[in-house]
Please model this.
Amino acid sequence: MNFLMSPSKLRELGILGMNSRNIGYIGRYNQRKNYHLADNKLATKSAALELGIAVPELYGTIEYQFQIKDMLDSLAERESFVIKPAQGSGGKGILVIIGRDGEYFIKSSGVRIDGREVRRHTDNILAGLHSLGGRNDRAMIEALIDFDPVLKDYSYEGVPDIRVIVFRGVPVMAMMRCATRSSDGKANLHQGAVGVGLDLGSGQSIHAVQHNRIVTQHPDTHMTFDQLKIPYWESVLELASSCARMAGLDYLGADIVLDKQRGPMLLELNARPGLAIQVANQAGLHHRLVAAMEIADSTSDQSERIALARQQFGQKSHPPSGF
Model:
């Protein structure tokens, strides 16, 4: 990717900048009263369950300091679990435990920690250390995803997830985020995860990037990305589009995981999805958003909107821009 492009060239390629995203789409199309559902993972989970949308099992919540003392007793029979802030963002504050070694807990990175560190992490969540605006928060304890074995070699000690950008119920761009050793087993691009751009028509990989640089294989597993194709692709897009209606947000990012037994499941929503997805796809969002507006105006049927998006934004009809 050429980082010395002129503003006119960036506009020609349809690159969406931060100001355009914030003012032209988030500010214009997302009513602030609806942000709470995307910003609070517990609210997201509750709304999803009401609509029959699959989500990871919730083992429990920690709301008060006195609950931390006995939290590990309630998890005595759990070999693995995830602790996360209900109002966290950007992957901050997520503790992934994949197993046990005696009295120790094994993180997704392979590091062992003791019970005191688990309690300290939970205490920090309640204090708002990882939350939007630093507000006091609640800790969610969820089941660890038993992710689809088709994807196991594309992520290092962590669950790969799929981010889909949806505008007015129309999916416009997608990528898979693959955990690495440097990202501490978390699927967060800013922490060193790999972002794999996905062809919206088929779920086939297009490009892969780490730290904004093109890569051809996973840095830890050495699995090449050229043969990656997401299973249940149509179901993934249907789930993402359903989230827009559920949240009442016209511009959002839906993070989806593929469970071995249950298939696509909603992990969380983002009312302010980042722009790195453009780098992973080597394509700009702006032109697609304009086209998605036309699709949304042409039909209110969700299946038809998805079909038109797959046709219009698929690689065969919309080749990579090569920026």
In short: The longest helix spans residues 233-247. The first strand starts at residue 58 and ends at 62.
